[in-house]
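Researcher: I've got a protein sequence and the SMILES for pyridoxal-5'-phosphate. Could you write out the 3D structure of the bound complex as structure tokens? I'd like something to compare against our soaking experiments later this week.
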Amino acid sequence: MNSIQITRAKHSKLKNTDFKNLGFGNFFSDHMLICDYKFGVWGSPEIVPFEAISLMPSSKIFHYGQSIFEGMKAYKDKNSNTWLFRPDENFKRLNKSAERLAIPQLPKNIFFEGLIKLLNIDNDWIPSAEGCSLYIRPIIFATGEGFHASPADAYRFMIATAPSGPYFSGKVKVLIEENYSRSANGGVGFAKAGGNYAGQFYPTQLAIEKGYDQVIWTDDNTHEYIEEAGAMNIFIRINDTLITGPTSDRILDGVTRKSIIQIAKNEGINLEVRKFKVSEVIKASNNGSLKEMFGTGTAAVISPISAYGYRGRDYILPKNKDSYATLLKKIIIDIQTNKSEDSYKWRFKVC
Ligand SMILES: *Cc1c(COP(=O)(O)O)cnc(C)c1O
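Model: Sure. Here is the predicted complex with pyridoxal-5'-phosphate in place.
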């Protein structure tokens, strides 16, 4: 790979950005990484000002949805060091998604050298306040042209970043969905494909109209097994046992999920990775053994569920003094932000 060519933004937006009211993913830093795939090879990555891009209407992204993404965060510790959390996992997953969507594999050096350079150049955009981070969005999409339904012959890899505050989901109320499916056997549910989200929006809108915040996805075949919570992996706690479903081609292999599994085991929490039914959750609610439900994902880290709806009835989760969600969230965030020892070797120092 040749060295990365850099074109600096003429005017930084940094001074006009209110770091006290960032929200999540609303503001974008000054630069972005771009790298094009043409004639069977990836070209040299470039860093350019964050700005609009130009595509032909015949680009296949618009017609056949070949588009994948990742979600990561960069953190600043109190000594102004910059850290990533298990970035190798995101890189590997990007290429797993690419394979499933017939997108060419991205070389590791383009991803890492590009990302590290971008984080160096836009380092002042990484917020240092408590709970804040730079949200990182790598994407690959089809730029190649043609109306014939076949994979494109050209692609673009980009990384854009957004300084973000804490992802306040609050305590979410969810609806167990038995009609629509997020993913299916043999489908693309395990990939971070843009289209997976497009398909989720309508059922989620219907749930919102009914007074819920999110949908709990069940398996597409029987709708008996609980699989994911919106775009997060899901954990339930029955008595003192934490349970999460096994990953499959329908369930996304979340980095937060697998980190929480390891931390929970290390904390001596009884943890089971197995399929679990809606009926088991209802039974546990009815006999008082269902203590917690929470979603896990990079954006919110851990998002506690306050209640769930099923077949016209709402079931309220109890309040716990010794919440696993609270405990595990603190442990993982302390590792991510360099506030604690990292015995797992998950932190990656950028600069
Ligand atoms: C991204 C995503 C997750 C969470 O994955 P993390 O690696 O923990 O951010 C879970 N489920 C779905 C459907 C996702 O797209």
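Model: The radius of gyration is 21 Å. The first strand starts at residue 5 and ends at 6.
Researcher: Great, I'll pass this along to the crystallography team.
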